[in-house]
Amino acid sequence: MTDSIYPSVEVLLEHATWMRELARRLVRDPGGADDVAQAALVAASMSAPRERSSLRAWLATVVRNAARERQRGERRRALREMGAAREEALPSTEEVVERAEAQRELVEAVLALEEPYRTTILLRFFEERNAHEVAVALGVPDATVRTHVARGLARLRTRLDRKHGGDRAAWTAILLPIAARGDGVSPSLLGALFVNTPVKIGIVVAGLVVAALLVVRTVGREESRGAPESVVERTVPARSDEGRGLVGSDPGSVTRSEVERSRVQPRDGVAQDAIVSQTLRGRVMDEHGIALSGVPVALVLSGNKDVVARAVSSDSGEFEIERPTGSGQIADDDPAYVTVFAGVVGRLSSAGPAVVVAPATMLRGFVVDVQGVPVAGAKVHVQCPEEMRTRIPENLDASEALSWSAQSDVQGSYAFTELPRLLDARLECTHEGFVPFAMALGDALGGPFVITLARPGAQEAAVRGRVVDTNGAPVEGAWVALGVETTKSDEHGLFALKLDDPQGRNAQFNVAAVRLVATCKGYLPGELAAPIVDGHPVWPQHVTLKMGTQALSIAGTVQDHLGRLRAGVKVFVADPAFFGEVDGGPAQLENVIGGHPSRSWSFVETDADGRFTIEGLCAHAYIVRALEPETLLRTDVPDVQAGTSGLVISMPRDALYPRVAGVVRTHDGTPVADAHVFPMCDAFQARMNGRIVSTSHDGLDGVATDAEGRFTMTDVPKSLVYLRVEREDVLPLEYGRYVEGDARFVDSIRELPKDRIESLDIRVDRRAHVQVELSDPALADEFALLDENGKALEVSVFIGQGRREGRRSPIVEGKSYVTAGTDRAKTLVLYKGGAEVGRKGVKLVPAETTTVRW
């Protein structure tokens, strides 16, 4: 049987997204654009291109023609002419019955949706109200309506998928002709018929499904489409050795929000080859977790924009790609899509990196102040909503979210040539001296969008002032901190920081901001403490912060335990002062002075002669720490006055275990083969008011366990080092680690046991996943897992090569993240505001995701 000359439903639907975007550019009215796109789809299904190789160009012509016909007011005549382009037999009795059955099936699927999705879908599509009107009717924000519509449509598609055995092409092929015909019934008449005859809703819902298919691509794409030679550059959260999170910085984060990223790079042929295969198996899905076929993906190594491997997703959304020798990311390689979550390639990537994509869109506009004057240098940032991970019922352990950034030019113009069409993504704009701007991305799409920045108003509580140098001249670009919140001075040295902002970082951290600090690279800070009246700081109307003189340094040499000068040793101050939050992470005052404000852990390395110089220091004494990279052996020298030169640091003698050995087993005694065991240390801990707010780690290559779970390593420090155990199917364990003030370590081994250092028995948990779904989103805001004795177990949300861990995991709008736990869990407990509100028994299965519904 030869292929039809007409484009199949599957082929048309795979082009629906960009056809709709083209229609939006041609027709200003969004509703009219949807009509044009649907008319173009109908027209395309009834005619054929002259050349199959130029299908996309032909479809673009079809869209333009549909737009032109609409603008001329001749849409009905055009549709009749297109309908007459080919003869079509009257439907048979079987076809009529099939369509009626499809309508009935669709009715049941819509009415079976849980609340609030059912009501939202019916109001939005049956009563044809827009998102704002639905929001008013339900008493919720517009953004919530958009979220419920998207999730409701996703649930509807999933139900139909399951009904048809996962064959989406089967039910889309039935529904598209139903919607195209419309059975001669207008939407207004359909509304009247629904009041009297509920079964007629099937016709309306058929139309809404096609509308949904125009927004989210649903079936396979052409295998022959050529892929571009490189992945479009995107802004990715920076990888480093350090945990950038502040404890409690994210209201939706796990109790302990520290993100851990090890520097470990396995030796060639040692741990890497023993732990994982040479092929990576991943999957591609849309923003609702639905598998996408025919999507090309590309692998790019860290620090290198060159594509080293490519693959195309199968009908089930799965792909296989050659494993690289280093770490990297897997992203889509299709201009119709933008990667939202990139697959992470690293030490444990064999668990299955997932690539999440959304339809591509663009955004351009201007940044101006309230007088309409262009604002140059403003940072415009787009990031996907934090709760997006809760929407996808898939294991995203080996995936991390991307973000997108632009900067306004001298005309105030900014542009994003590609963004994911995520209506509830967050669009933010910041500039020194202005109040931060934020809104939903969906409210900015559809044309040039003007962002208006305002300075803190005179009526707003704020501390305002100027930063000047020692001569009284204004300082541009100085960092100014008030508690956790920071800003930079403008070209006149002016700055403003809001006070008592309930949405500000100081409020989130419960920090009483009583001191202003201003500094810039190379200079000592200027400070001012507010007078305290009746227990509250009272700020003057205008503050002048005068910078100090040039910063100080500490210089010296490092010797090993034999007195030899050592090259490559890391040297840093272990007790810098907390400055504030910069680029989403804690910044140390000395790092800001040293010109590295975004680094939490900043160190220098000794040169070939063992010499070092630490710059950017204030006029007081420090603890100077040296860390040997080959062994993680470290030593501290206290009370070193800034300005010191000629400091000699000697590494300690007899501080290494010549041999460390043991076995890794699960809690039931099963040996764990091919586990990666390596020494790690908490090299640096950033503190705020004595509290640890982030930890930076360092580590070695380590070894792999044998078939009996045994391992052996040499030259391990006797203190301040622990053993980390990893495998993709177990929860990472830090054996011998202790963190002061962290309740999770109360009952743990606080250091490597000296009495059995060559016969360690390390027990690990099998990794199993769980997701909580609530029928009432207000029921709970977090959950915990308990073992058979009622003891809380550790849960983790993995984010690429880092994780957020704790005793509880958040629930956002009625759904939790797909959270990693252990098969030892016996009970799941719900909490609301810290108080228990329910519990039930659970049984988690390793390598599977269990959904627990309330």
Topology, please?
Elements: H1 9-14, H2 16-26, H3 30-45, H4 55-71, H5 75-83, H6 93-111, H7 117-126, H8 131-138, H9 142-163, H10 168-181, H11 187-196, H12 201-215, H13 271-275, E1 279-285, E2 296-301, E3 307-312, E4 318-322, E5 328-332, E6 337-345, E7 354-369, E8 379-383, H14 388-391, E9 399-401, E10 403-407, E11 413-420, E12 426-430, E13 437-440, E14 449-453, E15 462-468, E16 479-482, E17 485-488, E18 494-498, H15 505-509, E19 515-519, E20 526-529, E21 532-533, E22 536-537, E23 543-546, E24 552-559, E25 570-573, E26 578-582, E27 585-588, H16 589-593, E28 604-605, E29 611-617, E30 621-627, E31 634-641, E32 647-650, E33 656-657, E34 660-666, E35 676-688, E36 691-699, E37 703-704, E38 710-713, E39 716-717, E40 722-726, E41 733-735, E42 760-764, E43 767-773, E44 782-786, E45 795-799, E46 802-806, E47 809-812, E48 815-816, E49 819-822, E50 827-832, E51 835-841, E52 849-853
Parallel strand pairs: 1-7, 7-14, 15-23, 24-32, 34-42, 43-52
Antiparallel strand pairs: 1-4, 2-3, 2-5, 5-6, 6-7, 6-9, 7-11, 8-10, 8-12, 12-13, 15-18, 16-17, 16-19, 19-20, 21-22, 24-29, 25-28, 25-30, 26-27, 30-31, 33-39, 34-38, 35-36, 35-37, 35-40, 40-41, 43-49, 44-47, 44-50, 45-46, 47-48, 50-51
Summary, kept brief:
With 854 residues, this protein is of the alpha+beta class.
Q: What gross morphology would you assign?
A: globular
Name the poorly predicted regions: 1-5, 74-89, 177-277
Q: Span between N and C termini?
A: 51 Å
Helical stretch tally: 16
Classify the helix fraction into a percent range.
10-25%
> In total, how many beta strands?
52
Tell me the structural class. Answer: alpha+beta
Strand content: 25-35%
Gyration radius (Cα, Å) is 30 Å
Q: What is the average of the pLDDT values?
A: 77
Biggest sheet architecture: 10 strands, mixed
